[in-house]
Inverse folding.
């Protein structure tokens, strides 16, 4: 498999869209929906009364999409079942919109697709950047820290080697610091997102000040959210370098595009690169995120 | 593209230093002298308290290359060969995740545990190899051994048979490599067996049998026999033992009560963790002569300051700042007790009444001796100082800046609890100030102290707890409640000559809070107060303990840096949040289940 330098648009044999309460949830569907032969829409079983969920759902219903609404714990099973029933007899072109998918959900779906799609298929991933929404004011203590999906837990590894944690930083205050404190790892590296919505970057740096102050500037990297191909190469290069003297672990906070790239890399380097997720759990209050008008995309050739 | 670059964070973490770097920066303390004894030892301390440094310095290699003036004394007195066994929280979390899955694999649990056993054996093999190596760099030949090649080959054969490994050639180096490979073989087997696509692709590895203690006992006997060192002790230095697999920990602790005779165990632990019985034993072998305890927190000021001076001086000297470390710090002016008492009695009627009741005449204070109100004045002067600072005529003043009395070199070290990692973090902030201004002004000291406080709070705010009335979401919320209550004791409406400022947990109602207290202890936010009659508090049973807040909170909340009177935690919390009765900790290590996330 390889990530292509350019996004491949055009006709898709299958498109998987997310159904959520955010108003941006429908942006990719508006753009690509008519180019897709078959639509699978994956919704949630919670927060279905929040913000634009029902409006978004009606739009998908109008297009006669196949809609499933489940919790994260069972969505993987449903997607596996759906893909198993397809019986692909040759390469296909698939579109995946990750905009409103949780990290766990997008990881499960990508792993399923990478395992199920025939060789030489393409998987085109799209992500609609949100407009600036201020970070939550309250503390975001860490309540869950675990593998992003059970398929990317990685091997037990060698306890003689130190841990290198690679954080994709988000803008929630000190979230990465909490994980760094818990793991007390030997080496810490951070990836800070730069995007056309520049206010995010300021918040990311401000709200991770304590962590950033405690590590060498050599360990701080910036990535362009709109350049997933080069971000993937940087990430891969770092992981391969760290693998020589430590056990690397990726925890992609921040924009989901980094989570997708981490999942792809975790799958590619399996079992040598565990990918984890972090959450404050249900204490995270639902917030609407309107589309910024910027789409990030890339294509993975299997 | 990317090369490994050490960071400031890494320099605070003894695990990532090379042995040479560790030796170059090592400061001898009383704790090291105690740890270097030939007893089984349990050492407790929160993050950054120096456990790893102390343990690593007992390795054969560290003692060989350590070049300090006190090193020869330790080389002469240390009779054992130290084998350092590091642990790692990420590895432990991975272990726990995989442990839940290996039930489907035949002997999955035993295979998984064997990785840690091989990890220990790998470190032992490395130490054996170092002792035999005739490296030209070895100046001191500490525990060096010369054996013939034929004996080395035989020794390797014996150990390989015991450890179920297959070195390619009969050398100690090859033995170590074979143990490393065995770890990988077991790890690969487990990974492939858990993946439906690869299950059955790898043959089940042949692994070492028996408990870790008996394996180490047998191994040391074999090595001693070939080294012609009958009865030589091997000390296994398990760092952060709570991060070892649970199935390994208790047998190791139990081995301290009559384990293999050539083996000494030295275990470092965080102050609190559940499911581990260490000191609850009526067995006579657990008496102090067989097992020593070292508590790295709550050091005496004398011992802590002596250590801090050496540590901080070293850092300054590396930056070409060679004067007496204390001379770089502007010292706060001592406050006048007479002036303080006079000012406070003018604006606080309750204080004036207390002085009148005690028949303390402010004009005579200088003349009071030990038999004539001197002890009373000494007892209340710091309380009066803080109360006077924070009160104005009409009540509490809204002062943002803490009083100067919290800074100066010795007070700053005390605020850091003499914790090496925190001291290193703080002292590095001062270097650029000294280079610019020669002396560090009080305002700069307060700024750096506040900065450290803020960073530390940021950490505490990431540790999740939950309470039945939703008033506590993080450990910081709990600490803030405690600190605010202690401050109220000092500046509240009624002058209190002996304000409460330490916590006890004797009442049964405290049980709902003890796990949170344990987390606060592990984070270093709470400190167990040492009792002179009792060398060690049983950290398993916190209800016997008495705790205080870390002195890092003192300047922010206007608290005493002494050990004030005690109050039951439950009474303090009921006063602040009458509805709260249970605080649950959020244990990330146990929360590794899949959840719905948005």
């Amino acid at each position: 498999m390889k990530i292509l330098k350019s996004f491949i648009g055009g006709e898709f044999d299958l498109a998987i869209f997310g159904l959520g309460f955010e108003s941006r949830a429908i942006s990719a569907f508006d753009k690509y929906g008519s180019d897709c032969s078959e639509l699978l829409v994956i919704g949630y079983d919670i927060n279905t009364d929040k913000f634009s969920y029902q409006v978004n759902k009606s739009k998908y219903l109008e297009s006669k999409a196949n809609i499933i609404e489940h919790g994260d714990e069972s969505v993987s099973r449903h997607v596996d079942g759906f893909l198993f029933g397809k019986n692909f007899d040759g390469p296909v072109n698939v579109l995946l919109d990750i905009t409103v998918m949780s990290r766990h959900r997008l990881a499960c779906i990508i792993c399923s697709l990478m395992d199920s799609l025939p060789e030489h298929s393409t998987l085109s991933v799209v992500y609609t950047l949100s407009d600036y929404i201020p970070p939550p004011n309250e503390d975001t203590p860490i309540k869950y820290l675990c593998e992003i999906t059970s398929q990317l837990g990685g091997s037990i590894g060698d306890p003689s080697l130190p841990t290198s944690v690679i954080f994709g930083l988000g803008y929630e205050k000190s979230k990465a610091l909490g994980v760094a404190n818990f793991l007390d790892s030997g080496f810490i590296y951070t990836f800070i997102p730069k995007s056309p919505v520049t206010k995010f970057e300021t918040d990311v740096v401000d709200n991770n000040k304590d962590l950033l102050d405690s590590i060498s500037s050599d360990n701080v990297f910036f990535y362009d959210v709109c350049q997933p191909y080069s971000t993937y190469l940087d990430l891969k290069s770092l992981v391969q370098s760290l693998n020589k003297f430590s056990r690397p672990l990726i925890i992609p906070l921040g924009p989901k595009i980094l989570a997708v790239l981490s999942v792809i890399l975790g799958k590619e380097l399996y079992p040598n690169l565990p990918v984890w997720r972090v959450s404050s759990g249900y204490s995270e209050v639902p917030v609407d995120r309107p589309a910024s008008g910027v789409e990030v995309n890339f294509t993975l050739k299997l | 593209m990317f090369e490994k670059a050490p960071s400031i964070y890494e320099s605070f973490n003894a695990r990532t230093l090379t042995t040479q770097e560790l030796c170059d920066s090592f400061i001898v303390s009383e704790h090291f002298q105690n740890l270097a004894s030939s007893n089984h030892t349990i050492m407790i301390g929160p993050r950054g308290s120096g456990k790893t440094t102390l343990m690593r310095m007992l390795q054969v290699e560290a003692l060989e290359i350590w070049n300090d003036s006190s090193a020869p004394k330790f080389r002469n007195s240390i009779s054992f060969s130290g084998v350092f066994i590091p642990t790692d929280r990420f590895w432990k979390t991975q272990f726990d995740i995989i442990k839940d899955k290996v039930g489907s694999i035949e002997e999955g649990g035993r295979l998984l545990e064997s990785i840690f056993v091989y990890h220990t054996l790998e470190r032992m093999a490395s130490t054996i190899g170092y002792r035999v190596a005739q490296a030209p760099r070895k100046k001191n030949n500490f525990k060096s051994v010369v054996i013939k090649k034929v004996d080395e080959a035989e020794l390797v054969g014996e150990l390989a048979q015991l450890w179920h490994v297959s070195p390619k050639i009969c050398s100690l180096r090859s033995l170590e490599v074979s143990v490393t490979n065995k770890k990988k073989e077991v790890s690969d087997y487990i990974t492939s067996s858990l993946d439906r696509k690869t299950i059955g692709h790898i043959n089940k590895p042949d692994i070492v049998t028996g408990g870790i203690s008996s394996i180490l006992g047998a191994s040391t006997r074999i090595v001693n026999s070939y080294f012609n060192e009958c009865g030589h002790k091997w000390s296994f230095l398990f760092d952060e033992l709570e991060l070892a697999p649970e199935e390994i920990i208790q047998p190791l602790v139990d081995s301290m009560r009559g384990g293999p005779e050539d083996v000494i165990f030295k275990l470092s632990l965080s102050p609190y963790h559940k499911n581990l019985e260490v000191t609850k034993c009526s067995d006579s072998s657990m008496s102090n002569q067989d097992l020593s305890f070292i508590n790295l927190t709550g050091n005496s000021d004398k011992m802590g300051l002596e250590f801090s001076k050496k540590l901080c001086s070293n850092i300054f000297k590396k930056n070409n700042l060679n004067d007496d470390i204390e001379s770089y710090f502007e010292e706060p002016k001592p406050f006048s007790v007479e002036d303080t008492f006079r000012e406070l009695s003018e604006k606080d009627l309750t204080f004036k009444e207390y002085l009148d009741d005690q028949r303390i005449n402010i004009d005579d204070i200088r003349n009071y001796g030990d038999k004539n109100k001197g002890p009373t004045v000494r007892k209340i002067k710091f309380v009066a100082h803080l109360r006077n600072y924070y009160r104005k005529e009409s009540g509490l003043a809204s002062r943002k800046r803490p009083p100067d009395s919290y800074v100066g070199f010795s007070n700053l070290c005390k605020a850091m609890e003499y914790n090496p990692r925190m001291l290193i973090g703080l002292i590095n902030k001062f270097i650029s100030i000294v280079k610019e201004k020669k002396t560090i002004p009080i305002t700069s000291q307060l700024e750096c102290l506040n900065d450290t406080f803020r960073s530390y709070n940021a950490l505490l705010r990431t540790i999740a707890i939950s309470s039945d009335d939703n008033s506590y979401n993080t450990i910081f919320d709990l600490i803030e409640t405690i600190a605010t209550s202690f401050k109220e004791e000092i500046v509240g409406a009624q002058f209190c000559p002996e304000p409460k400022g330490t916590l006890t947990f004797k009442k049964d109602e405290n049980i709902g809070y003890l796990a949170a207290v344990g987390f606060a202890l592990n984070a270093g936010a709470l400190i167990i107060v040492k009792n002179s009659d009792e060398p060690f508090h049983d950290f398993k049973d916190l209800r016997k303990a008495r705790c205080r807040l870390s002195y890092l909170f003192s300047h922010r909340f206007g608290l005493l840096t002494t050990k004030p009177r005690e109050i039951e935690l439950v009474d303090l919390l009921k006063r602040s949040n009458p509805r709260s009765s249970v605080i649950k900790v959020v244990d990330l290590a146990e929360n590794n289940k899949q959840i719905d996330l948005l």
